[in-house]
Model the fold of this input.
Amino acid sequence: MPALLLASGMLLLPSNALGGQSQAAPPAAVPATTAAATMQQNGAEPLRPGDVVRLRIWREPDLSGEFPVDETGVVVLPKIGPRSVTAESPASLREMLVGAYAKFLNHNSIDVTLLRRIQVLGAVRQPGVYPVDPTMTISDVLAVAGGTTTEGDPNRMELIRAGKRVGGTISRASLIGESRVRSGDQIFVPERSWVRRNSGFLVAALITAGVSTVVTLATR
Done:
């Protein structure tokens, strides 16, 4: 009887108490991801050198303005001095700046906008580099560059990054913050083909040629 009870008790012991290994599978390893890559995957890319921090603080013109991010990723702001911003997500950066300026103010009317540096090239009236609000559309960006020329074809815009063309079309209705456009990219507007630019002339020429052919046949 004691031997039977001992055997029954051993059956109730946990497996590790008997020197066995637990059969539960270990949790799957999560790949390491840098902060910048994580923010990019979440559609919240951090600022880069050349971008701009725009401050609008109610009744504080000396604190308001547009402040560029230098080549080291630092922006120098009134009152609070230099701040490194390239490791901050847009949301955390706004929260940090609002909190920093709230110490000097008796109100919370603080507007922080992060402007992206976009270069607009090709068949536009004023090609150049522009700080762009992520809430602007591609059409808004083209308007800032003076709009397309009469030869420009905004339906075939190209996105260029680090000297290489990024595939896919760019919709003029897309918001910068929700599109594939990143800070430092180039938006290139190509010229329309000769056929498209002279379609009216070609149609007129074809009509004239057709009329001439009909008249010639009718007079024979």
